[in-house]
């Protein structure tokens, strides 16, 4: 498959690039500056300068963009909208690296993790920004999107076990009672979804075993 990974220099982006390359896919890194990923094909361009022509011919575009400072959190929605607009009306899928804060903690789907008392206050602004971007992409019927949330404890330097559990809209735990996944195992599940294409216009989540 032909895959473009936007923000390929980020931790999640690099691992998704590596996982897809290891499976023999044709991967292009989209980066603002020098490429740090293992992709040999590169589009060196600001995300907001990308055009329809830049993304034409890909099967999947991965949105691995992340912003961390409060003054830039709006860029989650802005960047996602820009990519969705570029892919509008095409068969190119938009795969989004999402957050865990928007996962529901009750079967009625009325309470999200970010709204619980235990959720760390320091992460609430980021979680709210990612929750907003999920709500916005849900309104897009013109784009073949999939929003992929990790579970609560998303470990950047966690081990690659090669195993994960595919879950849905609700926060889940494994047999050990943990809600945890490494970036490396998340990348495995993410690329599996790229290949399987089973959850168009859905949010899914990935949990470590």
TrEMBL record:
UniProt-listed Gene3D superfamilies: NAD(P)-binding Rossmann-like Domain
Which Pfam families does the record associate with it?
NAD_binding_10 (PF13460)
User: Which GO terms label this protein's molecular function in UniProt?
Assistant: oxidoreductase activity, acting on the CH-NH group of donors, NAD or NADP as acceptor
Q: Which InterPro entries match?
A: NAD(P)-bd_dom, NAD(P)-bd_dom_sf, Polyketide_Oxido-like
Which residues are in the NAD(P)-binding domain? 8-176
Residue intervals passing through the bilayer: none
Name the record gives this protein: NAD(P)-binding domain-containing protein
